[in-house]
Amino acid sequence: MRRPALLFAPLLALAAPAHAQLCDNSNARVSADGRVFGHLPYGDAPPGELVAVPAGLAVGACVLRRDVVPDLARLIAAAGGRVLALSCHRSIGYQQAVFCRETQTAAGERALSVAPPGHSEHATGYALDFAFRPRVNDCPDAEACGAATPAFRWLVAHAARYGFEMSFPAGNRQRVKWEPWHWRWVGASATAPGAARARALFARARSDFPAEPAVARDPVVIASAPPPPIYLGAYAAPECRKGKCRPPRKRRR
Length: 253
Hints:
alpha+beta
């Protein structure tokens, strides 16, 4: 009997290679775990959840998820203006323009420092790049030399208490370029407004490719009580005759 073709569709989908469209209609292979050039897949933030970051907190225009802005404001105030928001939410379309800007460079090389469209933390509205002030030796923004600034050292020491963690530390297992300027917000605690959604969105990144420095993960404690000890031979069945039972006789040792 001929089986319906629909039954074989899942098998065909598994066998067919998955690709992500990049630049000039070129495709990149999607690995079995959903990553493209090491980057995890992320969707775009709903426009209704994005708000403008006040001008005094950012270098140029910046929008982020509404829940991020209060912690960002507190962080920048505590830093005394030495840390500012630089590049915030990027739509998937904008990310494609950024990724495809340098067509003379191979896509795999570009992906070391720029995530392919649909695979950038910026699209979530929870991630941003920081600018460090004052600049040291005319170091441009979003460059590794920014890690030599006192502002960056302050950020490393204090960012976690405001719910921010560095997504791509040096030598990360994602094999993404070290980006001391790129941080994501997950809330200082699991009960902070919006933190549950942010932590769910970054759950896989946080478990498989830990941030450093990172916001402390809430320990999972499974309550349990040890069972009472069982001694072999301590229990004996009652002696029953003609429907009447009595406790077992004590055994002589």
